[in-house]
């Protein structure tokens, strides 16, 4: 099995395990392993203007450039690195880039989660009003 296939299997397995949370949470949620291997719930897809989680996940550009406003990229990258390296969660403000070019301000709670020997970043997103 290739690394890509293995990562696809991991994302699928963890998203199945979290299915109830992904489907019923009032928050937008996404699960991230790397730029190619990610998934989200319908609320997050809707938040960024994508028709479905699959359409959002199909975007292969580097994640920060594709989805995060320039001003929010350093903080989100730092929080992700802390989650991966130190296994610490964090809460931060993130401005997202929507598919149509508009932006949306949010608060993101990012937590590391382990699955089959790999660390993922699980993100819960709340719109800031």
CATH fold descriptor: Beta-Lactamase
Decide which structural class fits the backbone.
Answer: alpha+beta
The H-and-E topology, N to C, reads as HHEEHHHHEEE
- Identify the CATH architecture: 2-Layer Sandwich
Uncertain regions spanning at least 5 consecutive residues: none
Give the spatial strand order of the biggest sheet.
Answer: 2-1-5-4-3
CATH superfamily: PAS domain
How many domains in all?
1
Tally of helical segments: 6
The radius of gyration computed from the alpha-carbon positions, rounded to a whole number of angstroms, is 14 Å
Q: Compute the number of strand runs.
A: 5
Mean pLDDT: 95
Beta-strand share of residues: 25-35%
What kind of sheet is the major sheet?
Answer: 5 strands, antiparallel
Short descriptors:
129 residues; alpha+beta; Beta-Lactamase; 6 helices; 30% strand; globular
Set down the secondary structure blueprint.
Blueprint: H1 3-17, H2 19-24, E1 28-32, E2 38-40, H3 42-47, H4 53-57, H5 63-67, H6 73-86, E3 90-97, E4 103-115, E5 118-127
């Amino acid at each position: 099995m290739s690394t890509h296939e293995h990562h696809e299997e991991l994302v699928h397995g963890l998203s199945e395990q979290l299915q109830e949370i992904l489907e019923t949470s009032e928050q937008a949620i996404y699960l991230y392993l790397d730029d190619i291997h990610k998934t989200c719930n319908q609320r997050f897809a809707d938040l960024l203007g994508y028709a479905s989680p699959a359409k959002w996940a199909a975007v292969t550009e580097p994640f920060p450039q594709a989805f995060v406003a320039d001003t929010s990229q350093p903080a989100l990258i730092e929080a992700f690195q802390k989650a991966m390296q130190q296994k610490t969660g964090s809460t931060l403000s993130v401005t997202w880039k929507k598919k149509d070019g508009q932006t949306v301000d949010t608060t993101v709670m990012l937590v590391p989660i382990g699955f089959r020997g790999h660390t993922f970043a699980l993100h819960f997103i709340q719109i800031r009003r």
